[in-house]
């Protein structure tokens, strides 16, 4: 273990010239433009639903991040207006809007009907302001899961620390009535003595966090990220939601080729 720690420390100290490859595209934090990648790690967080069984999970990802086209397990996006040197970039994308749940995922969901993961089609506009980027988006469910839309804006600031890239961010999302009611509402047929019927309405969610990208070699990055989300009252008042304060912490290792 000591040898491994020494190896990692030495690698980090020797990677100073490798930092600076992190950039913002379509509201995402990417690195090593023009390469394929595979990534694995772990993520843990707070309970979203009351009595949630699992709050820690393995992270697996892979795909290709190019100049205009990007694809990985989180979705697909294509930049059709702008270049890296332009003030404004616009992209079209497809991604999951709501992740869904099974009734067995938490004690508070027992007797609930399963909610499906959605597939959302959206438009994104990135405004590059030096090292900072304001990313705006609007997406609509095209798979018939919640049948609504989500919109929002997020600010990213890429900071090169020499041995690593540090990217703090802050944003706000607007969630339509259809989204909130589908994923956080409780139908009359699902109500119990301890879970009242609940009709969701449109709401906002606010989040802040950071991502730290540490290049170990030309091909390997270690990342660590932390995010905090404050849910609006229309979501947090739902009888199936554990708390308005949500956090998640994760770490991954990515290999680029």
In short:
With 257 residues, the chain is mainly beta. It contains three helices and 15 strands.
Structure description:
- The chain is 9% helix and 49% strand.
- The protein has 257 residues and is mainly beta.
- A twelve-stranded antiparallel beta barrel has the order 3-4-5-6-7-8-9-10-12-13-14-15.
- A hairpin with a 4-residue loop joins strand 13 (203-215) and strand 14.
- The longest helix has 12 residues, at 2-13.
- 29% of the residues are buried.
Note the main sheet: 12 strands, antiparallel, barrel
H-E order: HEEEEEEEEEEEEHEEHE
The total of beta strands comes to 15
Separation of the first and last Cα atoms: 28 Å
Describe how the helices and strands are arranged:
Layout: H1 2-13, E1 22-25, E2 28-31, E3 35-45, E4 56-65, E5 69-72, E6 75-81, E7 88-95, E8 120-129, E9 132-141, E10 149-157, E11 159-160, E12 165-175, H2 177-184, E13 203-215, E14 220-231, H3 233-236, E15 245-256
Antiparallel strand pairs: 1-2, 3-4, 3-15, 4-5, 5-6, 6-7, 7-8, 8-9, 9-10, 10-12, 11-12, 12-13, 13-14, 14-15
Jot down its keywords.
single chain; 49% strand; globular; 257 residues; twelve-stranded antiparallel β-barrel; mainly beta; 9% helix; two-stranded antiparallel sheet
């Amino acid at each position: 273990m000591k040898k491994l720690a020494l190896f990692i420390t030495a690698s980090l100290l020797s990677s100073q010239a490798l930092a600076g490859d992190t950039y913002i595209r379509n509201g995402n934090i990417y690195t090593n433009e023009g390469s394929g990648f595979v990534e694995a790690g772990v993520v843990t967080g707070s309970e979203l639903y009351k009595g949630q069984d699992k709050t820690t999970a393995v992270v697996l990802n892979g795909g290709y991040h190019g100049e205009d086209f990007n694809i990985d397990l989180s979705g697909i996006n294509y930049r059709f207006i702008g270049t890296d040197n332009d003030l404004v970039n616009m992209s079209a994308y497809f991604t999951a809007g709501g992740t869904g749940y099974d009734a067995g995922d938490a004690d508070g969901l027992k007797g609930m009907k399963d909610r499906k993961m959605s597939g959302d089609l959206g438009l994104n506009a990135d405004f590059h302001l030096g090292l900072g980027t304001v990313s705006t988006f609007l997406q609509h469910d095209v798979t018939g899961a919640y049948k609504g839309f989500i919109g929002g804006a997020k600010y990213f600031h890429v900071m090169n620390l020499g041995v690593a890239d540090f990217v703090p961010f802050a944003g706000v999302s607007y969630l339509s009535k259809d989204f909130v009611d589908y994923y956080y509402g409780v139908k009359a047929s699902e109500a119990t003595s301890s879970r009242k019927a609940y009709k969701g309405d449109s709401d906002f969610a606010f989040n802040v966090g950071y991502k730290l990208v540490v290049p170990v070699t030309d091909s390997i990055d270690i990342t660590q990220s932390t995010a905090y989300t404050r849910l609006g009252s229309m979501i947090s008042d739902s009888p199936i939601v554990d708390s308005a304060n949500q956090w998640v912490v994760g770490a991954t290792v990515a290999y680029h080729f």
